[in-house]
Amino acid sequence: MVHHSYDYVLVLMSYVVSVLGSFTALRLMAGIQDIHDTTRRWKRLILASLVVGVGAIWAMHFIGMLALNMPVKVDYAPGLTALSAVVAVIACLIGLSLTSRGDHSRLNLLTAGTYMGIGVAAMHYMGMAAMRMPATTVYNGAITSLSILIAIVASVAALWMAYKRSSVLQSMFGALVMGLAVCGMHYVGMAAARFAVLGTPEVAEAHGIDSLYLGMLVFGVIVVMLLGVLIAGLRNREVFAIDS
């Protein structure tokens, strides 16, 4: 088995970007049930899905993957990595749309959260499958199942918070909790994986440095995008329901 460790700077970055993405999405969803125009509602839903899917979930996942240090060369299949981001956005759009019209019953939240959670878990394991390295990945079934359960529970909680009228301070607290939940799912999923070397591996002496730079780049790009959405929202109080 391949010994691995984590770069805790990147681990922290993964949490921060998830919190920022969660906060932005929560403010976008505040008061959406009061929007009766179908076009405006769907625009808001799509934007929120992009924010939470790419910003809060996928970016957290990718930076978290880069935080994994192993003594072998690791690359990522760009097509599958990009597809995993699309899956995350679609999963969030399904979950948000199912609960956007005011039906926040336990059954509907559970249904929407299950769809969303399974999609988030699929994104995670697609990202894992995108790893290209001289090793095979073996999963612990029980821990894998736990990670999927965490994804579903976190999604249900996220949907409940998304449509709960809340102040900016409450959204900040909710984002901190959502960030923990998203990171929890990811790192539990990573704990389920064991890597077995195939043949004589190519040692990646500078892999950690490359990963740090790439992680910082992804972090910077996503943070700038999220801050752009936040600034645009602050200029339009209606968008972020500032008075709620």
UniProtKB/TrEMBL annotation:
<feature type="transmembrane region" description="Helical">
    <location>
        <begin position="172"/>
        <end position="192"/>
    </location>
</feature>
<dbReference type="Pfam" id="PF03707">
    <property type="entry name" value="MHYT"/>
</dbReference>
<feature type="transmembrane region" description="Helical">
    <location>
        <begin position="107"/>
        <end position="126"/>
    </location>
</feature>
<keyword id="KW-0812">Transmembrane</keyword>
<feature type="transmembrane region" description="Helical">
    <location>
        <begin position="6"/>
        <end position="26"/>
    </location>
</feature>
<feature type="transmembrane region" description="Helical">
    <location>
        <begin position="80"/>
        <end position="100"/>
    </location>
</feature>
<feature type="domain" description="MHYT">
    <location>
        <begin position="6"/>
        <end position="196"/>
    </location>
</feature>
<keyword id="KW-0472">Membrane</keyword>
<dbReference type="InterPro" id="IPR005330">
    <property type="entry name" value="MHYT_dom"/>
</dbReference>
<dbReference type="GO" id="GO:0016020">
    <property type="term" value="C:membrane"/>
</dbReference>
<feature type="transmembrane region" description="Helical">
    <location>
        <begin position="212"/>
        <end position="234"/>
    </location>
</feature>
<protein>
    <submittedName>
        <fullName>NO-binding membrane sensor protein with MHYT domain</fullName>
    </submittedName>
</protein>
<feature type="transmembrane region" description="Helical">
    <location>
        <begin position="46"/>
        <end position="68"/>
    </location>
</feature>
<feature type="transmembrane region" description="Helical">
    <location>
        <begin position="138"/>
        <end position="160"/>
    </location>
</feature>
<keyword id="KW-1133">Transmembrane helix</keyword>
